[in-house]
Specification:
mainly alpha
Length: 146
């Protein structure tokens, strides 16, 4: 770390999530790449977590040349990647539920109250079904061919 925390409790060695807001601002404003990397890693670990939210707050009223756009892109990139991973996880879950049911896709779709084509969009990850529909899918998969 090239910066020292002055007039704040904490140190640059603490996990970024525990840095006081003033320390985060000091790192953004007076730091270098080695100071910004822990911030970016914190954003990557939790794209909607406290570090990302505090950086967003700061960028809402300041736009430091160079690092501001870098941090903004880190938030956007991390959230996009997280959303894609979540979408893939839901699609995998849908495919597993279809397989567990033992029903052909057409019958499974009918049993959950949708069309085969809509079910295909869920299984492909193109559309994310509502949580209530996932619960319905779980029920159909548990019952199977009953």
């Amino acid at each position: 770390m090239s910066i020292a925390f002055r007039n704040v409790e904490g140190s640059p060695e603490m996990p970024i999530e525990r840095w006081p807001y003033e320390a985060l601002v000091a790192a953004i404003e007076r730091g270098t790449l080695s100071d910004w990397l822990p911030i970016i890693r914190g954003i990557e670990r939790a794209p909607w977590g406290s570090t990302a939210r505090r950086v967003e707050t700061y960028l809402g009223y300041e736009s430091p040349w160079g690092v501001g756009p870098l941090l903004g892109r880190a938030i956007t990139r991390s959230r996009t990647a997280a959303e894609q991973a979540e979408r893939e996880a839901v699609a995998t879950k849908v495919r597993e539920l279809i397989a567990a049911s033992g029903l052909p896709r057409e019958e499974f779709a009918t049993a959950i109250g949708t069309s085969r084509s809509r079910l295909s969009t869920y299984a492909a990850g193109k559309v994310v079904p509502a949580a209530t529909l996932i619960v319905r899918m779980e029920g159909v998969a548990a019952r199977g061919r009953d």
